[in-house]
Amino acid sequence: MLKGFGRFRCVVRGTGKALGVVLAMGVVVSVAAVPATAQEAATELTFTRDVAPILQQNCQTCHREGSFAPMPLTTYDEVRPFTPLIRDRVETRAMPPWPMDHTIGIQEFKNDISLSDEEIATILGWIDSGAPMGDPDDMPPPVEWAAFEDDWQYEEHFGRPPDIVIVSPSYMVPANELDHWPNLETSVPGLTGDRWIRGVELRPADPDTRYVFHHANPSIIDELGSVGVGHSAAGTVGYIFPDDTGQALRPGARVRFGMHLFPIDRDVNAVLQLGFWLYPEGEEPEFVTPGEVIHEASQSTGFGLESLSRTGYGPARGTGGGRGGVSTDPQFPRQVDLLIPPHSTATFRGVYVLDRPARIHSVRGHMHLRGRYQVIEAVYPDGRWEVISKLNWHHGWQTAFLYEDHVMPLLPKGTVLMVTNHFDNTADNPHNPDPNQWVVRGDRTVDEMSHTRIGITYFDSEEDFERLVREREELLARIVSEPVQAGG
Amino acid sequence: MVRLPGRTGLGPVAAALWFCLLAFSPVEAQNRLPSASGDWMLRNLRPSGQPVIPLFDGWYYNPDGTFELCFGFHNLNTAQNVEIPLGPDNFIEPARFDGLQPTHFDEVPSEYRRRFCVFTIHLDDLEEAPAIVWTLRVGGQTYSVPGSSSVHYRMDELEQSSRGNSAPLVRFDGLEEREHRGRMMVLDDWTVSATVGVPVSLEYTVTDPNAIPLGVTRVVWGKHQGPGPVEFGPEDDRVETESVSFSHATTATFRDPGEYLLRLQTVDWDLGNAYGFHCCWTNRYVRVSVDEAQ
């Protein structure tokens, strides 16, 4: 767990959570901590001593005055009326929002905001025993929250505010219109030489913008072309690259903010801020990442269609091709071929063959209202087949999942990366606006998309990759040799 | 000029077709609604032998408070145009809206793989939308799609300010004085005369309604209805200009005599952005009466 990853977005839970022991190249065997049952724990549980600390660490980022959750959960009086709802949301793991399937695939993430089994048992036990307040003296002091304008989630991790903050041009979102998708450009100030990005965070610049901000796909534009950086949506804060990896930021670069904004009942001047944490001046990371690369489930790059990047950063972007190009053969599947019949479920799979070794450091799904889940799998050259992650899609929470360094999948050249998306266009899907419709690919929310953005670094040198594999094996050997403390 | 909400008709051609349709008495619309189709795996496209899927694109407000429903289609054949005459294999319910839909379905376009909003249905009350169903029968299978009144299916029309998209003004030169704009299905009173095998020139002028340089305009021709194949030259064109207006010409050549309805879409900007966001373009229709060669 990454310390200080936003003070209250993610806390170090240590052995309280399932401890993932990573075997070769990301295969995970979980030794689950055994939680106390709700009934066992119920007898002594109180709000002030047992529950309030959990809420402070995991819920109050959003559930407090001045934030955007529907109700504050900071005092006993605020929490008590909502205990039936809280019980349901906690037991079903709907809250805190962490739409990663916890039963399969890699489970260790830098930004995991889900509750541990132990925390869930505590909350359920407390509610089931009548939700007593307890001794007021046990109540922890209230959290002192940073002012909205100063609240950079990654500041604690990096130990400082962003090195560069790029403010988007202001965009007026008129009241009660349909959605807006402006592309707004601005320059990057203060660059005198090549710099390298270690982390990036995108945020609304003011509280009003929160209400109209759906998502943004910023891009760095320079003489080599454009490459995405810090794509963000509800549920995503940003990205932190591995310690040896960075994304290039060159003098003269500009940032284009591709935004999706949805009007509300009043005019709003929307402004976004993009914060970069940089490697020290003059320091160049060992590896360069293109950031996230889109892998379409309703399209494949195909075999033998590898193409070099126009940008020099990595694979070509924007065509949904992952690593490689798109065939001109009309029969070759493309993302716009997505078609889901009425009252049906549908499954699409994109297949990508790595022409170089690679390391995955994050995944973020993207579907719309009919999306149910996304599965990312790897078939290794030696035939082993691994589920890397399964994202249980929720359109409201488009989380970027940042793998812990020691579980980032290391994929040899020739690995087949598969992205499978499953859609539900039946009446059983509560988000489905009309199951009588044929659903097609489109930018509107009512149409569908089917891609996974995979944060990835490609290695041009086999030697580099083999060294990383050796280092991983050594690290895992050390972890395995240490005693596992369960339930602590 | 005749607006085509279904209540005013397509003129003599459509009136005759509607009469035929009434003769086979389609059942109530609700019976045509899609039923459960199970699980569906992608890779529907084949060179031939695949169905044509009718699609509901969405609806938009007209300035007078009425509504327009947009329908398109997805031909899943990469190398086969499909003809489905109006009748028991191609009909809209309720019958008063029937006859507006295409009978010719181009093979999947190479660039953006569907045909968007190829015709519209005019409604005074949007709540009627779910009861309006377009059905195609292909290869023994039935494919239907209803309209929807869901706000999720609301579309921008004429302008999309955040991307600067705007439906162009289009005028057929020498045939009309007035320019038209937007997707509403409008059929003028005039008819172009043509002869089998002899190219007929269709000249038109495209103008930016806001008097700013057009930039890129896509021009997409297609046969909407008619008895035989039509060759366009060119069928699909990309015009880039710094002017606020340009004039162009396309030829259409007919193999068989009869009454035809051609469709022109002039799309602001590139197809992906306009179609992906369902705005903005202008639909125009040209009736052509084709005689046998002398």
Task: Report on the architecture of this protein.
The complex is a heterodimer of chains A (488) and B (294). By secondary structure, chain A is of the alpha+beta class. Chain A has 3 domains: 14-145, no CATH class; 149-288, Jelly Rolls (Sandwich); 291-467, Jelly Rolls, CATH 2.60.120. Helix content of chain A is 15%, strand content 30%. Chain A contains 8 helices and 27 strands. Chain A has helices at residues 38-42, 47-58, 76-79, 83-91, 117-128, 155-158, 207-212, 462-481; strands at residues 19-22, 28-31, 100-105, 164-167, 171-173, 183-187, 195-204, 213-222, 225-228, 232-233, 238-240, 245-249, 254-261, 268-270, 272-278, 287-288, 291-296, 339-340, 344-353, 358-366, 371-379, 385-392, 400-402, 410-411, 416-424, 439-440, 451-458. In chain A, strands 4, 7, 11, 12, 15 and 16 form a 6-stranded mixed sheet that branches. In chain A, α2 (47-58) packs across α5 (117-128) and α4 (83-91) runs antiparallel to α5. The model of chain A is unreliable at 1-36 and 302-325 (pLDDT under 50). With 294 residues, chain B is mainly β. Chain B folds into 2 domains: 2-31 and 47-153, no CATH class; 159-291, Immunoglobulin-like. Chain B has helices at 12-24, 271-276; strands at 2-3, 38-41, 52-61, 67-75, 82-83, 90-93, 104-105, 115-123, 133-138, 141-146, 159-160, 165-166, 169-172, 180-181, 186-187, 192-195, 200-207, 215-225, 230-233, 236-241, 245-254, 258-268, 281-291. In chain B, the strands form 7 sheets. Chain B has a 5-stranded antiparallel sheet, with no helix packed on it. Chain B has a 5-stranded mixed sheet with strand order 16-23-22-18-20, with no helix packed on it. In chain B, a hairpin with a 4-residue loop joins β11 and β12 (165-166). Chain B is globular. Classes of the chains: A alpha+beta (488), B mainly beta (294). At the A-B interface, β18 and β19 of A face β2 and β3 of B.
